[in-house]
Design goal:
The protein is an all-alpha fold. Helix 2 runs antiparallel to helix 3. The longest helix has 17 residues. It is globular, with a radius of gyration of 14 Å.
Length: about 80
Amino acid sequence: MQRIDSLTLLAVLAALLCCGVSRAGEYDQAKLIDVLKSTAPAAEKALACKQLAICGKPEAVPALAALLPDRELSSWARI
């Protein structure tokens, strides 16, 4: 059981490092917006939307609004 918990923690830390989280634990909004504007897979864009729901500022609105017509990402962008 201890090993599973350690592996889970390692996976979470790796995901945070790969998803634009700064050393202070805050999301890098510019990196998240870049993900939304890129050709990244929908799953990565959905994660960026979720993170912007926490830390997003008005500058993120145009990139999020561009996703509203997308069937896969519309609900994530509205969050």
